[in-house]
Amino acid sequence: MENTRCFANRFSDYKGALLPGQGAEAAVPVVVASIDKILQTVPIDLSDCDGGLYDGPAGVAYMLYHVSECPLFSEYRDVYLKTAKQIIDMSVRYVDAEPDKNMRAAFLLGGAGIYAVAAMIYKSLGLADFVKPLTKFRNLWEVCAPIHFLECGSDELFVGRAGYLCAALVLKQKLGIEDYVRKGIQHKNLSNEICRATRCGAAHGLSSVLQMLLSYQDMLSGAEKDLVWQSVDFLMNQEQNCNWPAELGAIIERENELVHWCHGAPGKLRAVNAHHPVPVPWFRKPQYLDKCIRSGELVWQKGLLKKGPGICHGVAGSAYVFLLLYRLTGNSKYIYRAQRFAEFLFTEEFKAGSRSVTRIYSLFEGLSGTVCFLVDLLQPDQSEFPLFSVFV
Which residue, 152, 187, 222, sits at the end of a domain? Predict the structure, then answer.
């Protein structure tokens, strides 16, 4: 029976050599052409700035910033950063006018992420004004501090406290600014959220909450650290045949399983790899690495997703798993697999059989995330899933 969620992976696996023809000479023009296509579709009106970094124009600004940071695109750096500034300036004006203070504090869907990216772009341009969005970001901790500041779940990644802390990590990584904003966050709130989370996924569930707790564990008490590690064990034990259900206690139907960053194995690999050196002493438990490698095999089999090219539930999001595993293991097999997924994105089979994307320019569902992946494939030793700083 045909799988409705993914294309069949007909590629032969790694046999000791990377693919020819995917170096900078061939890939840079492809990336530049993709960016040109994106910039032709991105909206330029203030009324079209909703969606935050996830699927709004602000995600395009982040993509341009990311490309400008890669030395292979140095000749395009100035124009990409200036374009990014134009887009992020418009996005900042949009979230400044947002009447819902809780949405202003959201990472991927609201103001916190936009302010963080604005600070990064301004700093890259050498503008002293980078302090202004940084100050707006810092002040949002007052919104996040109450334990139940959101009805939908105060500590999830997209709009909750985990997202705010994730943005602070990005600022620490990109700007070298200490994540002093975390001092305004009561980490026991995150610990309490563990007890209430019912979803497993990185987008809205336990996976991303645990990643943030692991990232800030120096701020936790001994008892809280124990709770975090017990919760990591609990999450890992929810595995079913190298994958994880979207909801705790659910049974995965093998013919209809979710193998996405937002729900499924790809997002879990990031949670249990958070902020540990390579080579590993692996989190007290070497079997975690073994479990991640086995999950990577599932992504190789079922990661050519039909939902589009993006990083949330598309082919590029699957391919980022291989770049992560390469950084963790040093095994070139994973670069090869990422190359194969990149190759598939440009096949007629994918173009004809993948779902159309409403906002083709977007970071998480569209081509901007794909561009980030293609750039990171050229620099695998520095590769990292957009806006998630695992190696800080």
Answer: 187
Mapping DSSP to helix (H, G, I), strand (E, B) and coil, where does residue 186 land? coil
Binding-site residues for Zn(2+), in ranges, read 262, 312-313
Phi, psi (rounded to 5 degrees) for 231 = -70, -35
Count how many domains the chain has. 2
pTM of the model: 0.92
Alpha carbon distance 378, 2 (integer Å):
33
Check pLDDT > 90 for residue 301.
yes
259 pLDDT higher than 80: no
Give the Cα separation of 167 and 114 in Å (integer): 10
Residue 294 and residue 315 in one domain:
yes
As given in the structure block, the two tokens for residue 133 are 């969005």
Cα–Cα distance between 329 and 376 in angstroms, integer?
A: 17
> Cα Rg for the chain, rounded, in angstroms?
20
Domain end point (choices 187, 215, 248):
187
* Structural contact between residues 118 and 88, judged by C-beta atoms closer than 8 angstroms: yes
Q: Which residues contact 141 (CB under 8 A, 6 or more apart)?
A: 164, 181, 184, 185
Q: Kindly state whether residues 8 and 32 are assigned to the same domain.
A: yes
Tell me: do 162 and 283 sit in the same domain: no
Which residue type, as a one-letter code, is found at position 141? W
pLDDT in tens, 100-110: 999 999 999 99
One domain, residues 124 and 245: no
Together in a domain, 222 and 250: yes
- Residues 335 and 223 grouped into a single domain: yes
Residue 51 lies in domain: 45-187
- What CATH code is carried by the domain that includes residue 363? 1.50.10.10
- The predicted pLDDT at position 224 comes to 84
pLDDT digits (tens, 9 = 90+) for 123-135: 999 999 999 999 9
Dmax over CA atoms of the chain, in Å, equals 59
How far is it, in rounded angstroms, from Cα 330 to Cα 255? 32
Do both 23 and 96 map to the same domain?
no
Task: Name 296's Cβ contacts closer than 8 Å, sequence gap at least 6.
Answer: 265, 269, 321, 322, 325, 334
- Shared domain for 237 and 122, answered yes or no, is no
As a whole number of angstroms, the distance between CA 328 and CA 381 comes to 10
Query: Binding site membership: which residues?
Result: 262, 312-313
